[in-house]
Design goal:
The structure is a homodimer.
Chain A lengths: L7 H19 L4 E2 L1 H8 L3 H9 L11 E2 H11 L6 E6 L3 H7 L2 H5 L2 E8 L8 E2 L2 E5 L3 H7 L4 E4 L3 H13 L4 E4 L12 E4 L2 H18 L1
Parallel strand pairs in A: 3-4, 3-7, 4-6, 7-8, 8-9
Antiparallel strand pairs in A: 1-2, 5-6
């Protein structure tokens, strides 16, 4: 497994497989055919087979997929079999919401530190975390095993903060700032641009209105 | 313009063009070649030309693109030349963060109502909005011109709420619940699954660790 690079489109679909398999598992379903999985997920059985073949298959002819095994294996590929410590930079509305979101912890993403440049926010509490000053960032990252840093700050300071994070060894940045970050090749950035997501909806609404 | 269907990949790239053009506009740049835009955006000039050709081009040979004109036109395509009233269902951490996010309003997405099923939350204030009980949903949508409904609720109640929204004429749902909603064909759903977004990062971290 793993010499061929797997397309990012397949990687993006894996969490959805994981979610459906988890639901099947909760329904106590032991095995499922690619046809039945295809019906539930609304994608073709051939796409399912192709996608899962990237990882060595998991399916057996005439048996289908073992639900529990497949969920576990996809979980391992996604790195969900271990805990990821996460920090959040930005203690505003968004940072607080992310810090308060229990679903991340259920999946092994644990917020262990929150940072803000605003002295008024430093010292306030969000769930179990006290907001720390930005000056403590490097020291905190050095002393705790942080694998993911979340940027919940405006675009203007985002690149500078990303530079600091990269310098102290962070390899994964979850970026909510509306800017394309420049980072070294071995650092991964996952962008969540909420405004651009809304624009997809306004595009659709607009298109339909033009058609009328 | 408009007879050929435009691929969703192109539509997904349009907000990024819009963002870069806005920045160029703020820098008072009047025109830009596809080569220079390509350098800034980190995509090929030929992709830029191809993407923008979907909408009739906008470029002139030997002149490049008029920044202001191109931004305006892409804005119109994305429906950003008008205001979109939005409601949020769910007054928890996430709903409150979304309601408090001023950037949406800057782009014409205005939160005019927030709803929650929990009586403890009803009546509390988030910026200019008072959280309303779910019973008022249909009446509120009927009386206000709502174009987008945001679901900031857990997956269990999400489908039922989506059904109610579709019945009262909502055509665009911004879905943060971790579930694939079933909706009529003329209703658009844009999913934001934060946990699955995090999984893209843990996949990358995991892949690199396996390689070591």
């Amino acid at each position: 497994m793993g010499d061929r690079p797997i397309s990012s489109a397949v990687i993006k679909r894996l969490p959805r497989y994981y979610r459906y398999l988890q639901e099947l598992n909760q329904e106590k379903m032991e095995r499922i055919s690619s046809e039945e999985l295809s019906r539930r997920m609304g994608v073709t059985a051939s796409q399912i087979r192709q996608d899962l073949n990237n990882f060595g298959g998991f399916g057996q002819q005439g048996y289908g997929y073992n639900v529990n095994y497949l969920q576990t294996e996809i979980g391992k590929i996604l790195g969900l079999d271990k805990t990821h410590n996460m920090i959040i930079v930005g203690g505003g509305n968004l940072g607080r919401a992310l810090a308060g979101y229990t679903q991340f912890e259920n999946r092994g993403f644990v917020v262990v530190g929150i940072f803000d440049a605003n002295p008024d926010k430093v010292g306030t509490k969000i769930r179990d975390n006290v907001v720390r000053p930005m000056e403590e960032l490097e020291d905190f990252v050095a002393k705790n095993e942080i694998s993911i840093a979340t940027l919940a700050i405006p675009k203007q300071p985002a690149q500078k903060v990303a530079d600091r994070l990269c310098r102290c060894g962070i390899k994964a940045i979850w970026n909510f700032a509306h800017v394309d970050l420049k980072v070294p090749k071995d650092v991964y950035v996952e962008n969540v641009n909420l405004v651009e997501s809304l624009m997809q909806l306004s595009y659709q609404l607009n298109k339909d209105r033009n058609r009328d």
